[in-house]
């Protein structure tokens, strides 16, 4: 897989990358605003890459 930015992965998954109240942290939310994951930018990036690589189910 080519190296994708977090923003590109989020867009591909149909998600948005919204800041949380904690400095340096981000929340991955769906289009309804439900929080799917919260962590550091590095943590979000690695988590999303794992989801892209892992087959659903």
Describe this structure in words.
A three-stranded antiparallel beta sheet has the order 1-2-3. The two termini are 20 Å apart. The longest helix is centred in the C-terminal third of the chain and has 13 residues, at 41-53. It is α+β, with helices and mostly antiparallel strands and 57 residues long. It has helices spanning 6-13, 41-53; strands spanning 16-19, 26-29, 35-39. The chain contains two helices and three strands, in the order αβββα. The protein has one domain (6-53). The protein is globular, with a radius of gyration of 11 Å. A hairpin with a 5-residue loop joins β2 and β3.
List the helices and strands and how they pair.
Blueprint: H1 6-13, E1 16-19, E2 26-29, E3 35-39, H2 41-53
Helix pairs in contact: 1-2
């Amino acid at each position: 897989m080519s190296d994708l930015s977090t923003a590109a992965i989020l867009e591909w998954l149909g998600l948005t990358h919204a800041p949380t109240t904690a400095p340096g942290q981000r929340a991955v939310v769906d289009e309804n605003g439900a929080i799917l994951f919260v962590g550091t930018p590095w943590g979000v990036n690695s988590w999303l890459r794992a989801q892209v690589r892992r087959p659903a189910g």
